[in-house]
Write a structure and sequence with these properties.
288 residues, alpha/beta, single chain
Length: 288
């Protein structure tokens, strides 16, 4: 299916959300964006000395989902700053982790890839691509509690991901699977790697699934709906603005969801400038 910022769009959906809900999603997206841009500057200035996996461009997925679900155990992979911040992780502890301090969210030993926070139920990444999917399924099986697994389109190509999802379907386990589909495995696009679509495979396993763009209202709408019938799967076509790791850039991004959301909020008559400025200052104060 072709990538597009309009994929799966539902006309008039944004206007069905309350102004408070729309602005809260925007606020969380801004927090992630400006936090990550500050991280990029610190990395460029060589004040961070280990690999960093930035969420710039992919903020809307975690921001939208975090506004409509709560109480889930969260299983993430290496690109998880966005999830940590959206679900309420302590940003100071994330800063400390990036600066290798013992007060970091993983005592300064995990770095960017392995962040976690038991206070928000977030389990850190351990290094095996896609491992969080079977871990989320195992947690749901053993505890009968809800879990959410965030992973990328490359992780979806690992065999144990689909076997775990198939098991979740068979046992009807309460897991929401979310693929942040940025079309890249490091720097290799999907069309080079495979000829099949993730959503088609998941549907064949008997799991309700949608394939949509990273429009926050669209994500929140489907997350709320699908969580009534778990397990379920959301494939979000999103855009990674920087390289897989670090601050390299190959060219302009396909689209910028933050800019698109600002346009939509303006159409709804909602003011964004104050939130953006306050968030930028908040992030600067955190790092100061």
């Amino acid at each position: 299916m072709p990538r597009s910022p309009e994929l799966g769009v539902i006309q008039g959906l944004a206007s069905s959300f309350s102004p408070e809900a729309s602005l809260e999603m925007f606020r969380r997206i801004c927090l992630i964006r400006y936090f990550e841009l500050k991280v990029a500057r610190e990395l460029t200035a060589k004040r961070i000395h280990h690999p960093v996996y930035l969420s710039i461009g992919q903020e809307a997925v975690a921001a939208a989902i975090s506004t409509v679900i709560s109480g889930y155990k969260i299983f993430t992979q290496h690109r998880a700053h966005s999830v940590y911040l959206a679900f309420g992780g302590d940003p100071v502890k994330l800063i400390d982790e990036l600066l290798e301090r013992p007060t970091g969210c993983n005592t300064g030993k995990g770095g960017s890839a392995m962040i976690q926070d038991p206070n928000i139920g977030m389990i850190g990444y351990n290094g095996l691509i896609g491992e969080n999917v079977p871990l989320a399924v195992g947690f749901a099986l053993g505890s009968n509690q809800k879990a959410i697994a965030f992973f990328g389109d490359a992780a979806a190509e690992e065999d144990y991901v689909y076997s775990a999802m198939g098991f979740a379907a068979t046992r009807k386990l309460p897991v929401l699977f979310v693929c942040e589909d940025n079309n890249l495995a490091i720097l290799t696009p999907i069309h080079v790697r495979r000829s099949w679509e993730i959503t088609d495979v998941v549907k064949a396993l008997g799991i309700p699934a949608v394939d949509i763009a990273d429009d926050p209202w669209l994500i929140a709408h489907h997350a709320r709906k699908l969580c009534q019938n778990l397990p379920a799967f959301i494939n979000c076509r999103t855009v990674r603005h920087y390289w897989h790791v670090g601050v390299g850039i190959d060219g302009p991004p396909e689209w910028d969801r933050l800019a698109l959301m600002k346009q939509e909020l303006k159409k709804l008559g909602l003011e964004t400038e104050k939130i953006e400025k306050e968030t930028m200052q908040y992030v600067e104060n955190l790092w100061a």
